[in-house]
Predict the structure.
Amino acid sequence: MISNSHHHLKVGTVLISMLLVVGCGYRMADFTATATKNLNIPIAKLEKGARVSGEDCAHKFLFFPIGHVVPDVKAATDQALEKNGSNLLLDAVWEYESFSVIFFSSECIKVTGTAVKTD
């Protein structure tokens, strides 16, 4: 027969194991078009603008999120596009930054590209 303290030890071990196996997943981005090679695509009207950037950040204090939980590529891209009223970014660069100090941490995604208006 199992002693009561031995039973509590097994239950405690199972609970701690369950806490250590917790994970999460999230969608990083939605793309209308993307490529890693140069493409020749005919566009009726192309107005190149300036280099623009957008950023989305997620912050935590004592492991508790302040606002949303993870930074979003789509939000950063939309922010960049809105700066010039464009609908496409050329030569886009995505950057991920992470920062933490004692009780505070921050994760950011920054998207930078040449703003383009297509017709």
Q: What stands out?
A: The first strand starts at residue 46 and ends at 61.
